[in-house]
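Table S2 (continued). Query chain:
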Amino acid sequence: MGLSTHVLDTMHGSPAAGMQVALYTTEGQQATLVKRFTLNADGRNPDGPLYDNDSLQVGTYRLVFDVAAYFKGCGVSLPEPNFLNHVSLDFGVAHTDQHYHVPLLVSPWSYSTYRGS
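Corresponding output:
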């Protein structure tokens, strides 16, 4: 339970192992860094959930995914400037007794997200 994320590289059909991610809490335009981490071989935070149910608070959050650096690291030739650099997802948590899973499906040219389970 709590808050988790998972990234799938839709260009290569695999988890986005090695992608850098940052988690922030937000209040209006103010963002406060909570943690930075590198996705493991499964495209997930190697330390497990970003927050467990006891730590997760009602409020707004931001996940920032370093998409361009990830694809460049995979050897993908990207134009300068590249189409996607960082993908920033702002979302709200209203019920701390529920699991909030924020997956990202991404290529160098598109992305999709949803509230997962």
